[in-house]
Write the structure tokens for this entry.
Amino acid sequence: PRLFSPWVTLSECETIETFLTRVGEELERLQIEASYSPVAPLHQESKDQGKGSRQPNFIRRTRQVKGQNIVGFALLVESLTAEDSMKLACLGLGGRRHFGGGLFLPARNR
């Protein structure tokens, strides 16, 4: 199975490199073996004429909470066992769950 989350936040992860490193650590902590990657945008042209943070190979989203910018990335997790898929869907990944962070759904094929 494949799972997708539009917004995963991990503390102190403002760049895609540190984010991916921490995702690996968190999956290992949860004892989940899977491959994972950032999600690329469907459309390469940004709606804000390039003023935002859309990159060609990943989606970075920010939300402002109590005056603080919270950074997160869209994430695809693949090659999960059925048990690990259920575990990740139930537990989520990262923080800000009450804002929708780290919630996973079955991934659609694009």
Remarks:
- Helices lie at 16-29, 82-91.
